[in-house]
Design brief:
Elements: E1 7-10, H1 16-27, E2 31-36, H2 39-48, E3 53-56, H3 62-75, E4 81-84, H4 100-126, E5 131-136, H5 149-168, E6 174-179, H6 200-213, E7 217-218, H7 223-227, H8 234-247
Parallel strand pairs: 1-2, 1-4, 2-3, 4-5, 5-6, 6-7
Helix pairs in contact: 1-6, 3-4, 4-5
Bound molecules: NADP nicotinamide-adenine-dinucleotide phosphate.
Residues 11-12, 14-18, 36-38, 41, 57-60, 85-89, 109, 136, 138, 181, 183-184, 186-188, 191, 197 line the site of NADP nicotinamide-adenine-dinucleotide phosphate.
Family: Belongs to the short-chain dehydrogenases/reductases (SDR) family.
InterPro entries: NAD(P)-bd_dom_sf, Sc_DH/Rdtase_CS, SDR_fam
GO molecular function, one term: oxidoreductase activity
Amino acid sequence: MRMTGNTIFITGGGSGIGQGLAEAFHKLGNQVIISGRRKERLQQTLDANPGMVAIELDITDPDSIQAAAKTLIADYPDLNVLINNAGVMMLDHADKPVDDALALSTVTTNLLGPIRMTSALIEHLKAKPDAVIVNVSSVLGFVPMAVTAVYSATKAALHSYTLSQRYLLRGHGIQLVEIAPPWVRTELLDSSEEERAIPLDQFIAGTMEQFESGVDEILVSPAEAMRANPGPNEHAWVNQFNDMIANGPAFG
Ligand SMILES: NC(=O)c1ccc[n+]([C@@H]2O[C@H](COP(=O)([O-])OP(=O)(O)OC[C@H]3O[C@@H](n4cnc5c(N)ncnc54)[C@H](OP(=O)(O)O)[C@@H]3O)[C@@H](O)[C@H]2O)c1
């Protein structure tokens, strides 16, 4: 994708990967608009990055998505890049009766969120040169982590949805990029100090290099191997990976 001169909307942006991407694109001379629910976290990011702007968004609320899209189109008519980054990750118990609130919140945020946000902006983006839609999935969409089964399933679904969008939008000049991060040190699942995860700055640097290279799937090491796993023998690695998780430090 073009690395400068874009107008970029990022869901999330007050923390973690969204904040890292927002700052990296801001430094390259793009107009970046971040969003989220926690006003103070958005403000901290704005204070550190003069010229960046923020809007409030609750991606689980269809009215909030519509209001955000209306504001974006009215106030930032050059908007040409949407980064669907907001997500939540919770431990669940796929071997027990489901916690309906947890399942609903995870699916509404991680899957319906990007579907609805893209839908609200799609006709606008079709009219823009150099338009890009970025969906942040996860390596866990390819090798599920059993203790976060709903989360892993939403990321597999987002991968599938991205493939459909890429096919359908190929004649409209919109590039569909999927970022499937490996484990990265962020607040997600309380992983800021997690030794098994890669540092956030290392992940952002690798991601920006791959954005520049123009690939459709951004896979920062060690994501490539997990991405390559699905196939008729995928259970060997699913079992090995989940044994490693089960035998490691407890979460939470
Ligand atoms: N860290 C990893 O290891 C990893 C690996 C693979 C994929 N990912 C994906 O990367 C993305 C970013 O996660 P992260 O690691 O950077 O974690 P994070 O720091 O917790 O960031 C998640 C962001 O999503 C926003 N968000 C959550 N619910 C929202 C809602 N209802 N409405 C609007 N915004 C909402 C949060 O902002 P507010 O709370 O202020 O709303 C927050 O800024 C997620 O999609 C995650 O699944 C992360």
